Amino acid sequence: CEELHGDRYFADDAALVAGFGRYHDTPVAFIGQQKGRDTNERTYRNFGMAGPEGYRKAMRVMEIASRLGIPVVTLIDTPGAFPGASAEERGQGGAISRSIQTMWRLDVPTVAVIIGEGSSGGALGLGVADRVLMLENSTYSVISPEGASAILWRDASKAKLAAQAFKPTAANCYRWGVVDAVVPEPEGGAHTDPGQAAEILDQYLSRILAELGAMPMADRRRARRERFRKLGPLRDPEAGMGMATGRETPPPG
């Protein structure tokens, strides 16, 4: 994959990587959040928390892909967008909302994959896709459990309680219709065997891209709009929350 740098406004954001490559001999635009693997890299990548430059870079790649008729695949792994004052001064909220709008309007097939942590608007800025997948041990929520516990209880030790309330697991997100498929991971989790995890994801991704590519553009865009517009009603008799879609737990891979 040939990486592109910079947002053509202010700077390059190392927390978000993007570029173009070939996937099964098909040109594809890839956009992903990168947390880093050690202390130095995590600091360099800002722990996967992108600023407005990252989302503007993502939009730049999306728009090029749309003009060229190239599918867009996003890989989501973030505790949220960077919440610092400097990011707000440079238009963080506006950048995320425009990224959502840009992805919503794309003419090309789009797939979002939550590969680890998908929290807050930082994840949603790359998540408005025709199909949304989750690795089985990943999470997807309006806010990280740590962030919620700090806001609601001002106590970081309440993160487990927040997670129990939000139910951010892949199984719940599938049951509520938030995601379209749950991708199995190798025994012990994707981090124990990244190669095998990539092979499993490849089976899902290649099939879905082929299905989306065969759909007429107007039908694909209509289905995307309908997919997200129907999200929202909350009804779970057991817990008082959760979208009632009639889905059971995800089928085995």
Give a structural overview.
This protein is an alpha/beta fold and about 250 residues long. It has a single domain (about 1-230), classed as 2-enoyl-CoA Hydratase, Chain A, domain 1 (Alpha-Beta Complex), CATH 3.90.226.10. Helices cover about 40% and strands about 20% of the residues. It has ten helices and eight strands. Strands 1, 2, 3, 4, 5, 6, 7 and 8 form an eight-stranded mixed sheet that branches. Helix 2 runs parallel beside helix 4. Residues about 240-245 have low confidence and may be disordered.
For this entry, give a set of tags.
253 residues, alpha/beta, 2-enoyl-CoA Hydratase, Chain A, domain 1, 41% helix, 19% strand
State the domain count: 1
Mean pLDDT: 90
Relative helix content:
40-55%
Q: Per DSSP, what share of the residues sits in E-state strands of 2 or more residues?
A: 15-25%
CATH class: Alpha Beta
Query: Count the strands?
Result: 8
By DSSP (H or I, 4+ residues per run), the number of helices equals: 10
Content-based structural category: alpha/beta
What is the rounded Rg? Answer: 18 Å
Q: Helix and strand string, N-terminal first? A: EEEHHEHHEHEEHHHEHH
Span of the ends, CA to CA: 28 Å
- Please name the fourth-level CATH homologous superfamily: 2-enoyl-CoA Hydratase, Chain A, domain 1
Using the alpha-carbon principal axes, give the shape: globular
Quickly give the CATH architecture.
Answer: Alpha-Beta Complex
Q: The CATH topology is what? A: 2-enoyl-CoA Hydratase, Chain A, domain 1
Largest sheet: 8 strands, mixed
Q: Unreliable segments (pLDDT under 50, ≥5 consecutive)? A: 240-246
